[in-house]
Amino acid sequence: MMSTADAAHSADTHGGFAIGRRVMAGVVGGIAGGLVFGILMMMMGMLPTIASMVGSQSAGVGFAIHMLISIGIGLGLTVPFASLLSTYPRGAVIGLVYGAIWWVLGPLLLMPTMMGMPLFMIDATAMMSLMGHLIYGLILGLVAVGVLRKNA
Description:
single chain; mainly alpha; two-stranded antiparallel sheet; 2 strands
């Protein structure tokens, strides 16, 4: 028979990781990947474009929005899929695939839709964005594995 404490623990875990650990992995991984990607976006002059989604041209506003999105996307990987992030090589591959998926969803579909721009425009800027999303995903996946495995 399962005790009340065991039932509560079972309800709060997925793939062996408590919800708090999965959230922490997504937040820390999202921040780490978002910082690196954000620096690349700053160097490419893309932060005002991100800010324009909320009617601003400020690079600072763009960076803040980018970081919030980075954390949300990090949580979208780690909360439901923590059990897949069992080793660093798996985390790297899953992170790269996840970054590529978000490249299609974000700058090729959602952002142009929000801004009244053409969808799925593949140009030099889009290819630089792909590189940034892959770097983001790689860092997210690796950092998330580290957080999930720490003292586990």
